[in-house]
Design a protein that fits this description.
This protein is an alpha+beta fold. It has 2 helices and 4 strands. The radius of gyration is 22 Å and the shape is elongated. 4% of the residues are buried.
Length: 104
């Protein structure tokens, strides 16, 4: 029964990582695309006097670039983890930023 607890705990951790990376990063990317569309101001508006250009929104563009930056950094961190393990290194989070250390 004790082993079942470890298995369920491990399965819960895998589920959490899958939700964050498998659904969270694509959702964050989609939010960035949506924010970028909001930042451009949308479609031109047609008035009786003519067509006016949409007014850009800086906050939408800023949020979009922030979302894209987080997604790119997560992908780069994942690639670093894979490559580092191939060279006998490990990714350490002892400091605020990730570092490569020798495996023990």
């Amino acid at each position: 029964m004790h082993n079942l607890g470890f298995a369920l705990e491990g399965a819960g951790q895998v589920l959490a990582v899958c939700l964050v990376l498998g659904a969270g990063l694509p959702a964050l990317f989609a939010l960035g695309v949506r924010a970028l569309a909001y930042g451009t101001g949308g479609e031109p508006r047609v008035h009786t006097t003519g067509v006016s250009a949409p007014t850009p929104n800086r906050i939408g563009t800023t949020v979009a670039y922030a979302c894209f930056t987080v997604v790119v950094l997560a992908v780069a961190l994942g690639i670093t983890f894979i490559v580092a393990s191939g060279f006998g290194k490990a990714l350490s989070f002892e400091h605020i930023y990730p570092t490569l250390v020798n495996k023990n």
